[in-house]
């Protein structure tokens, strides 16, 4: 997983308990550090049986807090370290820790810190199948889920006890995604549905040949991730997925323009219905429907034409001859034809003529009834698939936000934040 410095100077507290899955936490912390976050670690006594504090101190660059290092003359104590942290995650969280948390037991420094924290805590469980599905543990997880905790799902795979079953801790990427979302979320995007399209469509000639383009899908992926981190409910429709995405993000894999049009239309219909929100434990109020105007980011490169008659099987080259004339027909212009009522629609336009790029993008806004366009000036085909990009965000009113060339993940966060003005 490629990590850019999207969490620069953010403060993350990571607590580890006594599970064999603790080795995954080292990679998770590496992701945080590479993202620019400052990380501090709390260890239970049982956790030290698996990995020494020195290892975590080396990876995080900070002294580990445990029962023997608590210091009330500094912030190395279970009260002050919680105040220091902007995000708190327990990974791995054993069945023992889960059940103690649910019952307010604080018989070690890790549990004392959790009890005193007072804000949402992310938990990534890890336990034997029978332990995680014991009715007592299941009840504790339900209670925590209704309280100030976010529970990450476990995996079904071969466990340390050499049995196949549920209970394996989430992968480091999934834990990282949850923490990044916890740190970067904004009220504007919370409970707001967003659809992102990406990749170049594939228009079949036969079962082995097709018409497509050079679009890598990387900018669309970065946009989908930025929106997810900021708290949106994202549906990502794409022909390409260049990197992993969070398991809770809606993912629809498509090929042709017709497929994309079908799933996009359906996804926008669902997005307009809003999101059902249930109150947390202790909160007043009933289940409510939150209706925030959904957004569409059309970052896909839809093929302009498709074969008029796609062939079944494989067309034999010796039957074609030395020349082959393909009859093409124009594809549907998805962005122009989808209904825009009730949504904020943002288009993406790649141009090679810098002198006319702004005019082309402005014409696109009017022709396709958009709120804005992200204009990207390309050099040539080598511009596709790179890790960096430059975008001018042009609004319907002619306003322009210029973003210098930078890593696509950082750029996407800036573009998403700027797009908030279209629903002000």
How would you portray this structure in words?
With 424 residues, the chain is an alpha/beta fold. The protein has two domains: 11-182, 3-Layer(aba) Sandwich (Rossmann fold), CATH 3.40.50.1950; 186-423, CoaB-like (Rossmann fold, 3-Layer(aba) Sandwich). Helices cover 31% and strands 24% of the residues. The strands form six sheets. It has an eight-stranded mixed sheet with strand order 12-11-8-15-18-19-20-21, sandwiched between helices. The longest helix is centred in the middle third of the chain and has 15 residues, at 257-271. The model has no long low-confidence stretch (mean pLDDT 92).
Count of individual domains: 2
Structural class, from helix and strand content?
alpha/beta
Number of helical stretches of at least 4 residues: 14
**Number of DSSP E strands:** 21
CATH superfamily membership of the largest domain, which one?
Answer: CoaB-like
- Biggest sheet details: 8 strands, mixed
Strand order of the largest sheet: 12-11-8-15-18-19-20-21
CATH topology of the largest domain: Rossmann fold
Rg estimate, integer Å: 25 Å
Task: Determine the fraction of residues in helical runs and give it as a percent range.
Answer: 25-40%
Can you give the mean pLDDT?
A: 92
